[in-house]
Design brief:
By secondary structure, this protein is an alpha+beta fold. The chain has helices at 11-19, 30-33, 85-101, 123-130, 154-165, 176-191, 199-208, 247-252, 254-266, 288-295, and strands at 2-5, 45-49, 52-57, 60-62, 65-68, 78-79, 106-110, 134-145, 169-173, 213-219, 225-233, 237-245, 272-277, 279-280, 285-286, 300-310. Helix 3 packs across helix 4 and helix 5 packs across helix 9.
Length: 311
């Protein structure tokens, strides 16, 4: 088993491995990860057994600590179907030896959520346990199992009907600037925060991944935007990355209509529909209003776990 440091010469090999993995998504491909290379210094790892690539791990380095990855919601170790529990333990031994040699003292490990797994992929979770990793953070997301959907609540159904009565229609959009402006206003008013991506950044990512990153908005007949959702479309999961609803949209159920369209029409053949997390301060505070809204569409809890492992 051998651990090496990624560099740009391996880009095509890396991306091809993600495409053929059992738990990787487009967010772990280099054109997504490297768009914010000015903010995070890459320290990604590649693992070989008998000269064959068996796993990759996206990381950024922060002094004597690596995170998998500082700029991503999740990272973790990406593998193919040949990965076994024994191989993963050997991989961790090789990784820890490599990290020691490079002065790394700690790993913050962001596990890939289970609904992205195309095949059982928890070998890393067992290896974390065997290497005395500690759970340091747990976020809760809200996810729908699409083949056995829970019905919308009466409130969410009424909202969608109200939006239709007010002449709203859901359409795909490429007006990223207008949408990010709407999102920024909503986040500032209700959460005191700002969007992670600028309009230019999200547009660049959408241009790089046109089949994966899509914007859906509710418009009236004058083409005024009331609400919108950015979807990150992976092989079996549609993930709502950004959600915005104007004050006028709240009054007439605009966001309810968008989600009704996405869940019951556009992405009805996906295995999962994920709304994203509804907590703050490292998972310690639950936003009850936000998660109740998502649960009203039939979503239920799936966790995003963060581990700390001393080297």
């Amino acid at each position: 088993m051998k651990t090496i440091l990624y560099n740009s010469e391996f880009k095509n090999i890396w991306d091809e491995f993600v495409d053929n993995s059992k738990n990787g998504t487009f967010m772990l491909k280099r054109d997504y990860m490297d768009y914010h290379s000015d903010r995070f210094k890459d320290f990604s790892l590649m693992f070989y057994e008998d000269e064959k690539l068996i796993a990759i791990m996206p990381n950024s380095i922060h002094n004597d600590e690596i995170r998998s990855h500082g700029g991503l919601t999740y990272g973790g170790i990406v593998t193919n179907r040949k990965m076994t529990a024994r191989k993963m333990l050997d991989l961790f031994s090789s990784m820890k030896e490599f990290l020691k040699e490079n002065g790394i003292k700690k790993v913050i490990y962001k596990a890939i959520p289970s609904f992205y797994h195309l095949y059982p992929s928890d070998e890393d979770m067992y290896a974390l346990f065997r290497n005395n990793a500690k759970l340091i953070r747990r976020d809760i997301s809200t996810t729908i199992l699409m083949e056995d959907k829970i019905k919308f609540s009466d409130l969410r159904r009424r909202g969608a009907k109200k939006a239709l009565k007010n002449g709203l229609e859901v359409k795909t959009s490429e007006d990223w600037e207008e949408y990010i402006n709407l999102l920024a206003k909503v986040l500032e008013e209700h959460h005191g925060t700002k969007p992670v991506h600028s309009a230019d950044e999200i547009k660049k990512l959408a241009d790089n991944f046109p089949n994966n990153i899509k914007l859906y908005c509710a418009y009236d007949k004058e083409n005024k935007m009331y609400a919108g959702v950015v979807i990150f479309d992976t092989k079996q999961t549609a993930h709502a990355q950004y959600i915005a609803n104007s004050n006028e949209g709240r009054e007439i159920g605009a966001l309810d209509l968008v989600f009704d369209y996405l869940i019951n029409q556009e992405y009805k053949d996906k295995k999962f529909f994920d709304f994203g997390i509804s907590n703050e301060h490292g998972g310690l505070i639950l936003n009850n209003g936000l998660i109740s809204q998502k649960e009203g569409f039939g979503g239920r809890g799936v966790v995003y776990d963060f581990y700390e492992m001393e080297i």
